[in-house]
């Protein structure tokens, strides 16, 4: 599959050098949500369910907005590898502009989230807390999107370590602030799930500020003058980022909204099931961050090869990235099957009366999750490869069909109509992810990944 062993090892080092810090950064970023879930689980089941529900809907909105940040990565990688420094600055600036605009436009969705949750038939005892949580959390959207743009800008330039360490620091800050605001320590009022939202706002603002300072002051990056005359619009570059970014956002939100819809369906089944679903989803999403890191590495490597017009490098980098992701997926399957109850139990207080029931339900969800690991890794890797060659509209249509045309109806059919419960809802996810993986991989390897393809000619 990978040809000459020496070439394979060279590309493996490149994938790991980019992918591991990116995976670590994504894991650290996701640990912000995980620490919220763990600490809310120790605070109370109703607050946990409210946090799970609110975070799922917030993440769906955030994911759509992050399409513009994800467009920055391949554009900067291609421009930098071909020596176009001005294009690096233009793409990143307009990615920031579009992300900030989206964050402001989306605020009303969070303010009126209670009405949305009521219409979705969620538990009455959870809705007031979830609405209060989302109203606060909405103010963290703009800084969270700024963080995404700057991380992708740095990743495309091969500067992955700084984002990793800043994000690790943010996790520790989040734990401390949660301890203060959720539980009412250090003289702060006890605010439960509202406290978790306030902590998230502070952490995202601090992270965005730290990354912006690094980008502005790091000597090797000064030549890009990223923030010089930042207020000046660049309509041509904005149009390029828009055309590449909105299909990425739609594709991302198609998958994320599938999981959010699964959360809604599990909410129809019961509060214990919703809490277990949230925990299992946190675990699977946390390890998915590793796949996402390698997918980002593939985007950068393919983008660079495209800028250098080197089809052999493009194909070899893609093959090695896929191999690494599939190896990790196999290891994850073993972990879910062998240690499911232990992993779920970490999110619950030993004194929680419903602990045994939630652990049993959550462990059964992880058994199903083990089945879709290869498909989930393959689909996100194929997305990364296609973004590297700036192919986003076709993948958007494939994602919409796979997740909403196949996955969502199958989840409803298995989980609600057939009465299989939460496990049936998760089984539908397996089907949707598998279809997406197959179609996206075929699109790359039969298109820009062919030996005779010339993706830079687009």
From TrEMBL:
How does the protein associate with the membrane?
Multi-pass membrane protein
GO biological process entries = monoatomic ion transport
GO CC annotation: what is one? plasma membrane
Segments forming a coiled coil = none
Q: Which residues cross the membrane?
A: 49-73, 94-112, 132-150, 162-184, 196-221, 241-269, 275-299, 320-348, 354-375, 396-420, 426-445
InterPro entries in the cross-refs: MATE_fam, MATE_MdtK, MdtK-like
Please give the name of this protein: Multidrug-efflux transporter
Q: Which domain of life is it from?
A: Bacteria
Q: Give the UniProt keywords, A-Z.
A: Antiport, Cell membrane, Ion transport, Membrane, Transmembrane, Transmembrane helix, Transport
Subcellular compartments: Cell inner membrane
Q: Which Pfam families match?
A: MatE
Example GO molecular function: xenobiotic transmembrane transporter activity
């Amino acid at each position: 599959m990978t040809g000459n062993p020496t070439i394979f090892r060279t590309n493996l080092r490149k994938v790991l050098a980019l992918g591991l810090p990116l995976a670590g950064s994504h894991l650290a970023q996701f640990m912000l949500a995980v620490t919220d879930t763990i600490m809310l689980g120790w605070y109370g089941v109703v607050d946990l369910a409210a946090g799970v529900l609110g975070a799922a809907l917030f993440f769906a909105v955030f994911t759509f907005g992050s399409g513009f940040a994800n467009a920055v990565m391949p554009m900067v990688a291609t421009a930098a590898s071909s020596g176009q420094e001005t294009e690096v600055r233009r793409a990143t600036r307009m990615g920031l502009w579009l992300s900030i605009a989206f964050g402001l436009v989306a605020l009303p969705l969070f303010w009126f989230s209670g009405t949305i949750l009521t219409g979705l038939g969620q538990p009455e005892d959870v809705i007031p807390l979830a609405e209060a949580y989302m109203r606060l959390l909405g103010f963290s959207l703009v800084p969270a999107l700024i963080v995404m743009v700057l991380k992708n800008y740095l990743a495309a330039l091969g500067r992955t370590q700084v984002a990793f360490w800043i994000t690790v620091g943010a996790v520790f800050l989040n734990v401390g602030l949660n301890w203060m605001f959720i539980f009412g320590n250090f003289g702060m009022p006890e605010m439960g799930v509202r406290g978790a939202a306030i902590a998230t706002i502070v952490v995202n603002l601090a992270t965005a500020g730290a990354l912006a300072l690094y980008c502005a002051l790091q000597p090797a990056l000064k030549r890009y003058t990223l923030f010089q005359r930042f207020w000046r619009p660049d309509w041509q570059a904005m149009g390029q980022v828009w055309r590449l970014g909105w299909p990425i956002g739609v594709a991302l939100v198609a998958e994320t909204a599938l999981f959010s819809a699964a959360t809604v369906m599990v909410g129809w089944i019961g509060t214990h099931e919703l809490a277990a679903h949230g925990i299992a989803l946190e675990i699977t999403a946390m390890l998915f961050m590793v796949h996402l890191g390698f997918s980002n590495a593939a985007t950068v490597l393919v983008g660079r090869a495209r800028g250098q017009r080197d089809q052999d490098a493009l194909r070899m980098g893609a093959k090695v990235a896929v191999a690494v992701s599939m190896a990790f997926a196999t290891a994850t399957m073993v972990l879910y099957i062998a240690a499911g109850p232990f992993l779920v139990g970490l999110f619950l207080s030993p004194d929680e009366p419903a602990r045994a029931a939630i652990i049993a339900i959550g462990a059964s969800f992880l058994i199903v999750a083990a089945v879709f690991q290869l498909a989930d890794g393959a689909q996100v890797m194929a997305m990364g490869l296609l973004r590297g060659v700036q192919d986003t509209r076709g993948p958007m249509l494939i994602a919409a069909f796979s997740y909403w045309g196949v996955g969502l109806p199958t989840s409803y059919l298995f989980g609600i109509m057939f009465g299989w419960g939460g496990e049936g809802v998760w089984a539908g996810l397996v089907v949707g992810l598998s279809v997406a993986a197959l179609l996206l991989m075929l699109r790359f390897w039969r298109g820009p990944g062919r030996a005779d393809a010339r993706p830079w000619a687009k």
